[in-house]
Amino acid sequence: MAVAGYAVMRFAMVCLWLRAAQQDGPRRGTAVRYAIGITIVQLLWIARLWIHDGTLTTTTYFVFMACELAVPVWAERRRPTPYHPHHIAERYSLFTIIVLGEVVLAIVQAIQGVMEEGHFSADLVMLIVGALLIIFSIWWMYFKREHVDIVESSELPMLFGYGHLIIFAAVAGIGAALAAGVDVAQHVAHVQALPIAIALSVGVALYLLTLGIIHVVGGHEPMRELLPAVVVSVACLGIGFSPLPIGASTLLIGVVLALAAGHAVHSNLRRAQLAEPAVAH
């Protein structure tokens, strides 16, 4: 059913691209390539339903996913399609909010289950505080600035879109790790704290590095601005790989992110204050 629903949606997009090919002469080739690429990939997904070997099923999944992601690159290589920068930036920011909302929902549901039992531990309290710091910090880091200028001026426009796939996956991974961390803190999980802490720290590091690379390559920030993201990522990974309880690990990662966000705010205010005399003169 999942493949059928996805195919219906994608074949409908093929019809739209064929309509665009008919009405936009200069970009007819781009629209036709989109239609051909999407059609071929959807036929591959449908044919995959007849594969019953486990290894081959897993392999074809990643291969076909790569083909799916390669279609826009192939279609846009000669004459890119026009787009509205504000609309694109808004769509990605709204989807980021949706993913963050799913993270909050997962954590709240996990905590509600604990509240029904009435068993709170110091480890769980630290995890809750750390989770709040992590969520608010990564939210602020994304929305501290507009992304419109990156979308419209980037030399690698595909980087913004494909980079967000990593951002979305990283945020979802952070939410899953935090929800699993609640079970670990309550000693009801079948895994140890270390794998959960590692998953949490890896998700945070991927998020910070990807967002930093998008800003640098997009031309908004010089390369030196990527250094704080690298330092914070290394610090979070060090905490995640340490043999600390899950609550302490989560709290420390949250504190590191909150300090990084606070440092960024202070730096921005300092730069604004230094720029005011120059503007006045």
Summarize it.
The chain has 281 residues and is an all-alpha fold. Helix content is 81%, strand content 0%. The chain has ten helices and no strands.
Helicity range: over 70%
Class by SSE composition? mainly alpha
Count up the domains: 2
Beta-strand content bin: under 5%
Rg, alpha carbons: 22 Å
Fold and architecture overview:
The protein has 281 residues and is an all-alpha fold. It folds into two domains: 2-75; 85-278. It has ten helices and no strands. α8 (193-217) packs antiparallel against α9 (226-240). It is globular and about 65 Å long. It starts with a helix and ends with a helix.
Question: What layout of secondary structure does this protein have?
Answer:
Layout: H1 2-23, H2 28-47, H3 54-75, H4 85-117, H5 122-143, H6 148-153, H7 157-185, H8 193-217, H9 226-240, H10 246-280
Helix pairs in contact: 1-2, 2-3, 4-5, 4-7, 5-7, 5-10, 7-8, 8-9, 8-10, 9-10
Supply database-style keywords.
281 residues, mainly alpha, 81% helix, 0% strand, globular
